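User: Before I run my own analysis I want an independent prediction to cross-check against. Here's the chain; please return only the structure tokens and, at the end, one sentence I can use as a sanity check.
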Amino acid sequence: MVNGQSSGFFKFTRGVKKGDPLSPALFILSAELLSRLLNKLFEDKSFIGFGMPKWSEHLNHLAYDDDTIIFASAHCLSLRKITVVLGKYEKISGQMISKPKSSYYIYSKVAHGLFQAVGDSTGFPRGGWLGFRSLKDVSRALFAKLWWRFRTTKSLWSNFMWNKYCMKELPTVVQFRKGSKVWKQILNAREEVEHDILWEMKSGTTNVWHENWTGLGALYHVLPEDFPINEDLQEAAQLRQEEAWNDQLFDQSFTEEITNHIRSSVQYEGSEDYWDGQYWMPIPSGKFSVSSAWQMLRHRADTNQEYKLMWIKGVPFKISFFL
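Assistant: Structure tokens:
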């Protein structure tokens, strides 16, 4: 029925009826054709693909359902070879690539002339900028996560690492000595994030000098260099006398400023829990996340003063729209 009137039968020239069980198989065959044609480009010595480490597998595309992402360099000849493959796929399969719905993305810091060159070679419109995160910054954030887990969880892995590398030493004072690359990177993360781990007093097992239980950082580094350290004082529980702080020990061990800060800011629950609690200071929830570690550790570009003056809080919408 067409517009309420009988119009006979439709004659199929390609494809299958909707819901036909043969449809997925035909789609997979056609998608496999495109994938193999793209992979075959690596056999062409003049083809320059997306930059990958020498030890890794070649990669030039990812596909899911009917969406395909093609990774390529900005080499014009190589881009034209890709468009030839796409044209060949259209001719063989009968499927047409919708160029208005396709686009290319490029890193924002490349030479400006490449934008037009890539567009001319592919025939696709530009989709915008491609803001890659620095893999070095991401790696630092992930090693910060390992340090957090090593310090705050009691697991088979953390016990193994503790016994292998720390033995009877505190993790915060273990020196950089022989060990695996992973352990050395974890120690690098220690230098960057340990001061952001706040130990909340429950049973008082936290080390007084080398762990951050006051919010000021490790007191060993906060106290003046010429201030004497009481080596007999190790756990925070030793600073308690029944239900209150030991004033005499405070006066002997800390400066007046630190003593006043502890009395006003540090809460001691006196819980029977064996381990003190942990709080991740960079975010209000106190729960560690890789995202917050990345925000804290990532390398930031210098602030553009012109943009800073332009984008201020309270700019009227009419003005911000044109900016």
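Sanity check: The beta strands are 61-64, 67-70, 104-106, 126-129, 197-200, 240-241, 244-245, 277-280.
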